[in-house]
Structures are given as structure tokens and as C-alpha cells.
Amino acid sequence: MSEEKSFSMSETANFIHECIKNDLGENTQNIVTRFPPEPNGYLHIGSAKAVYTNFRMAEIYGGKCNLRFDDTNPMREDVEYVNSIKNDIEWLGFKLGDRIFYASDYFDKMYNCAVKLIEKGKAFVCDLTAEQIKEYRGTLSTPGKESPFRNRTIEENLRLFSAMKNGEFKDGEKTLRAKIDMFRPNINMRDPIIYRIAHVTHHNSGDKWCIYPMYDYAHPLEDAFEGITHSLCSIEFEDHRPLYDWFINELDFEVKPRQIEFAKFYIKNTVMGKRYLRQLVENNEVDGWDDPRMVTLAGLRRRGYTPEALRNFLEQTGVSKAMSVVDYSYLEHFAREDLKTKSKVIMAVLDPIKVVITNYPEGKVEMLEIENNQENEAMGTRLVPFSKELYVERDDFMEDAPSKFFRLSVGKEVRFKGAYFITCNEVVKDKSGNIIQLNCTYDEETRSGSGFNGRKVKGTIHWVSAQHAVKIEARLFDFLVFSDDSEQGYHKNPSSIVKMQNAYAEPCVNEANYDDRFQFIRNGYFCLDSRDSRPGALVFNRIVPLKSSYKPE
Length: 553
Known about the structure:
alpha/beta, disordered C terminus, 12 helices, seven-stranded mixed sheet
């Protein structure tokens, strides 16, 4: 993480805690927060920070948090996104109950508020095009210029606004703008647009409206309608706060919500902007919004992350006023911490090479008892079949091994997990020189639990019985993009997914459910892919890798 200090949600040093306490005194149970997503995409881990901050603050103080869909832009919104957002929030562990609201439910109230602004001389109908409005707006170093339609009479503005509502004008032909000050240093206060015309069907209100409020206008009104006490949002809305307060004050709301901004956080080598995520989906560069390489909550869930791991991550990254950059390994750390004591530890061979134990009796099968998790005895044990022909990982063997390589090599003895000491005697190769088989012998006096006949070896490797193994596909993921110093900011990783389609696992995987998590010894934590896996064709996603103990010389 960056050096900038941030505080977890539960710490009283958190500046948001201080604001709430100062505002509400002892009546902190009256706190009402909100999370207002626009339903134009799936939530990503950056969105989850806002979800967690608002819902968690309400939890801490015994208050309430509203999920309110900012569905004021029907051109890019869809019920699919509405449902996905609700599912993601409840998956994170926050109960929604009756606290689900829609901006579109307030369209009548918002319209009446706009009429009130016109009647107060604080809003006017403007005929400038979008390009002209941008030109008239000015820049940070130059003042704006007033619209030639700014001084229309109240009566004319009321008539034109009613005509806008009644569908008498084309898209973009007119807008309703607040009348504030075109010379303000803060550009957001230079007569911002309140309503625009859009003849499109809305997912919630149908064809009732052809004018839609802008977010900067709708947001403070919705907060006031719902009695929000603290509107917690990301730092980019800090410059919009004067406009937020202007609408609240001009419309004489009794409840005056307070907007408090906190910094976003970024994760290295990830795409977190919804616009970029949408491009990846629409350009078919990923397998949908729930692609396991995406940092959408749907993608992380499909990859196998648990809500507990994400909540712990979000809690510990905390909140601050300064932007922080988090390494992806920090997120992986919380996944490992969550999974290490509740995942069954099993053997799976992703890149197999056959081992034949030449002195093992033909046709013999032993059922070996192996613990399910050494760190959690309560998970018990399982029986694993052992036979004459086995598979081991290709990189667990070296023909010319260095001195610090304690796995399988010619003439050296190694322990097979839960089984026997094995010695490799012969390497079998094909005509191209590729290793296709290892001929080994075992010491029957060294069965696991026997005390190994008083002998010790430094290395232990995992295996699966070739006769009993279940063929699986294992998918290994890397960063979808890599950050760089180019103008674009990142470049795509052509090796973001590797599919190991000839992998083998213990028979117990046939009983796996989609909610199960496994540690494949030395290969990482895995779960069934919720979309592509099916009985007889099991696909496992790697959630996070394990740290290897072997370092090449």
C-alpha cells in the first residue's frame, strides 16, 4: 500500500467517524447512509469500497443504509445490472430488506422541484446545443459566458419546460439549466444542466418520461427525500459539493444531508474503471462481466474469492483523504488467510508425468488415510487410492538436479505424500527426447505412519493414482493487464489465462460442490468454475497460488 496512513472502518481515528459523531452527537442511531450505483454495469472492487463504507458505517452506528439505483440515464441502463448489483451486495453480507430505492421513483418530485426553481428565478430553459454549452462554460483559467436564453421570463420557462416534458421537442433541442453564476471559479456552478431530453424507454418508468434529470441535480434531492444524514462518496465529487448544497438550500429541504468524500483506492495491474470493463466485455476480450480475470465482484466470486476475504480486505485498506495504491498481492493475502483453515487440502497434478513403481505388486490398490487439513484437525481425514502407476508434477522431477532440489531425481529418494519413500531408477523418453515415464521403486517399510523405518528424506511430493485419477481442467490466471508509463496506462497480458486441460485430481473431486474450496498441494487454492464446469468435465479455477519454497539457483 502507499505510505499514506489510512484507518480501518472500525477505528475511531477514521475521519468519517469523527464527522458522524460531531454531527449527530449521542443520536448516532439516526444515521442513514446510501449507496447510489448507476445500473449500467457490474460492480467492481472499487465500487465495493463504496458499498462497504456506506453499509459498514450504518452497521457500526446501528443506523440504516439505502441501496438507491441512480437510474437517471436510461440510454445505458438495464435490469440485468440492477439484479447483479443487488446480488453482489447481499453476497458481500449486507441485508437489503426494504431499503431498495430507485431514482426513477422520484421523477415526479424532481420535476416539481425543478418547477419550484423556475418559479424562484433559479432555473431557465436553454436552446444552446451541447457543443455551445461546453464552449460557453469556459475553462479553469477563463470565465464562462452567459447563455442568450438565460433571461427568459419565469412564465416562458414554465411553458417551455412543460413542453419539454410533453415531448414537443427533439433530443438535444433544449435543456433546463440552473441559474447560478457563469463566473464562479468552480466550473460545476456555472449554470449546470438540470434536465435533458431523451426519447427512450426507461427500464423502470417505461415511456412516461422523455426528460431525465442530471446526476448532480438528482443526487442531492434523492438524499433529501430519503432522509439521508451522511452522503459518503468518492473524492471526485468534492468539487461537486457546493452544487449539492446549493440545490438542498434553494429547495428549502428540512433534512440537509452532509456529503463527505473519501479517496478511491487502486489495485496495481487491474482495470477498475467501469468504462474500460464495459469495453472488454463488449469487444469480447473477456468471458463476460464475470470473467475470473476481471475485478468485478461477479468475476472474483466466479474465481473463488469468498465474501469474508473481500470484507477483510476492504476493512483493512480503510478510508482516507489521500488516494492509495494497493498491490494485488495484498488482496491475495486475505484470500489465503480466509481459506487456509477451511479448505480441504488434496492432491492434483496439473502437468503430469507418469511414474511406474516397478516393484509394486501388479493389481494391488491401497487406501491410504490422509488428513484433510493439517491446520484444522476438525476437518478429519479421507482415504486416497495408491497403486502401481501414478502421476506426479513434471516440475517435481529433474534429471540433472542441483544440490538444493529436494524433489524427485535419478538415484535420490523422496517421500510420496501419505505413502512411501520412492527412488527414481530410470527415465524413459520418446524419440524427440521428451520424458514420458519415470521407473521407480518403493520401500514398503516406509509407509506413512510407520516411522519410516528410522530413515529421513528432505523432500515430499504429491501424486495421484493413474487408475483412479479424475481428469480435470485447471485454469491459472494472471493479470489481465499490466500497468506501464504509456499514455494509455496499461497493456494487455497475452498470458492472462492458462488452461491445463490434461490435469488429474483425486477421486474426491467428483463430489465437489460449487461452494467448495480446495487447496491443491503446491499449486494453490481452487474451486469449480460456476459456468463451465459440469459432471464428467470438471473445470477448476485457481483462486490464488501458493508461495513456492523452491528457488532456482
